[in-house]
Amino acid sequence: MLKPYYFLFFEQMLFSGIFHADPHPGNIFIDEVDGTPILLDFGAVGRLAGPQQEGIKLFLMGIQQNDANILYDAITQLVEDHEHIDQAKMEQAMAQILLRISYVPRIQTDELIHSFFEVIRDFGLSFYPSVGLALRSFITLDGTLRLIQPDFNLFNEAKEFSKHYITSMIKRPFKEPLATKERLEEELALLLPALRKLPRRVDKLMQRVESGKITLHHDIFSDKKNAMFVTQLFSRFVLLFVGITFGILSVSLLAIAQFIEAPYAVYLNSAAYVGLFLCAVLLVRLSIQAIRLMKRG
Fold it and tell me: What are phi and psi of 28, to 5 degrees?
């Protein structure tokens, strides 16, 4: 009797987006015949948009998996004006809450959610009104269900529900092929007007390109940083090429000096050693520049 009720509530909040916002015991009626839960008094109804639904799912998943990074991703979808959040500090605050609850066998849902409310307040943030209503509904739901089953764990059950619901969604096309076919036809009917306009829009775009009304221009040298990078890269390539050339010529001269008369061999050897010296200087310089770049990076 307990599972159909919280499954119904989770489906409302996490997937439908419209949920009963006051699930206290007085607003629940259980059918004596088949045990079906019936919700009463829809004076308080909450609505969650798609991003907030995903945020609530991540919130439950982060608590269940003890992952502060998942909780941070959830918070960014549940609060207003989150662009200025310091991610490292926020994750540290989330980790402190997770660390605290990891040493107790079970923490009260209201205490846990209130801890997150306090962190959000300390960071100067605020939940969307609908999200705050949803989290308070979780507290009410947990208290209601623990009257029936004292060892009930809301977060474990939410994870089980998500797995069950996603599995059923994957299997639905195979179990209900006719309904799936009808849904695809409806989606295709909605897409047809846009698809019909697509060739015309492509044709107009090509006409503008041909007439010169639309031009695409990109020059990597228009940015001083790009120009400097290419110039430095080219200069280093030239130095490398010159250094290798000096090395090859010097080795060749040393080899030739072995087969000619001694007076001329002295000049060739001298030129070869000078070339090897210049080759070494250039290669060492390039190596030093490469090491400096690595340290800067």
Answer: -125, 130
| Segment holding 282, helix H or strand E | helix 262-296
38 bridge partner residues:
29
- What's the CA gap between 282 and 273, in Å, rounded? 14
Non-local (6+) Cβ contacts of 51 within 8 A are 77
In whole angstroms, what is the distance from residue 205 CA to residue 199 CA?
Answer: 10
Does residue 72 contact residue 88 with C-beta atoms inside 8 Å?
no
Q: What are phi and psi of 45, to 5 degrees?
A: -130, 130
Positive or negative: CA dihedral 26, 31, 34, 37: negative
Interhelix angle 109-122/129-148, rounded to 10 degrees, is 160
Q: How much is the pTM?
A: 0.52
Tokens in use for 18?
A: 């419209």
Contact indicator for 155, 64 with CB cutoff of 8 Å: yes
Token digits of residue 267: 């000049």
Higher pLDDT, 269 or 129: 129
Higher pLDDT, 131 or 110: 131
- Residue 23's SS3 state is coil
Take residue 32 and report the two structure tokens written for it.
């004596």
Helix, strand, coil percentages (3-state) for the chain, rounded to 5, are 75, 5, 20
Supply φ then ψ for residue 97, to 5 degrees.
Answer: -65, -45
**Intra-chain end-to-end CA distance of the chain, in Å:** 61
Token couple for 60: 């439950």
pLDDT digit string, tens, across residues 241-269: 888 887 888 888 777 767 666 666 677 77
CA dihedral over 164, 166, 171, 175, signed as positive or negative: positive
CA distance 69 to 87: 9
